[in-house]
Fold phosphoserine phosphatase.
Amino acid sequence: MKKAFVVDFDGTITVKDVGFSIIQKFAGDGWKEIGDRWIKKEIGTSECGQKQWDLIKYNDEEIRDFASKFEINPGFKEFIDIIKKNSYKVVITSDGYDIYIKEILKQNGLEDLELSCNSAVYNKGWKLSFLNTDKECNLCGNCKKKVVEKLKDEGYEVYYIGDGHSDRCACVYADKIFAKSFLKQYCEEQNIPYYDFNTFYDVIKHM
């Protein structure tokens, strides 16, 4: 069977959560209260994201410069080498934003990878776009479940790799799950089978 790997970005491909770090460093007062409402599912990503990025008074060049210094997870480049060698499919799917994701991928020579994420454009303020929402749910800006389901419909065996709140819904539709942090906790609470991982060397062992 054809294999596809759906991979989260913040805290999965990167060691640290870049999107959260940007908000933490650049947003003005009030960002934490907005984020807490998102965690409690009182508001979705689109509302949370726009409200938080409205608090950022820095331009796109400053955000890219900050993002360029974040490290990717050990083993990720080797993981991609194996993907390409075996003609597997990989999709980076994130509820974060292209402004920093594309910068980090470019810094690491990985800009050719397929990417599904939200968009952030600066023009005297930040304008966010969410092009892959689920109208029935509307919690995430980028519905990762739709990405997994599309791959399943195309006949792929889907491996899901993630760590966060926005991975919980999508991962259960995959054939195999690699989880850490919040996603690992969720899988344990829901008795969902998963492989524990810290770096991508742990993922490579099961490929």
